[in-house]
Amino acid sequence: MTSSNTSNQSGRRNRTDSQIASEGNRGGRSRVSLSHLAGETRALWEDMREWVDLRVELVQVDIEERIQKAANEIMAALLAVGLGLFAMAFLLHGIAVWLGRLLGAVEWGYVLVGLVLAIAALIVRRVKPNLTRGLRLRGTGSSKTPDTVSTSSNSPKQDNPEPRSTAPSNERVRN
Prior knowledge:
It is built from two helices and no strands. The chain has helices spanning about 5-105, 105-125. The protein is about 70% helix and about 0% strand. α1 packs across α2 (about 105-125). By secondary structure, the chain is mainly α. The protein has a domain at about 10-125.
């Protein structure tokens, strides 16, 4: 080999080494960019995990509030029914005693009050009123009421008249 070939090869080698060095510098910058991107991705992942945890906690608190509200409503209804039954018992007792004094024997007053209650029970049994009409838990699926069910054969039946969101609502129902 001649000296020109040797210098030419060493020049290529030098140039290749310098190219490698500059690529290494660029690679270093891309490594910094990749590590920065990885850090940002980790931070985003942690933020997303925290958001999901907070959302789950919010749903849990919302469910707890709904359960507590339903329990309070049930307890209030039971208390009202209990007090109403006591009031009705005392009222019926008073009417029976009053009628008994009018008839001359207290026993006849109780017999008359008993007969009136028995007749009322038979009428209710015969009529069979729909006492649960409109009784529906708030926020639970759609129930078919006379407004949503079509009775004519010409109009199509609506199975689900309005779409409902499955996402929890942040609204608070106030009475």
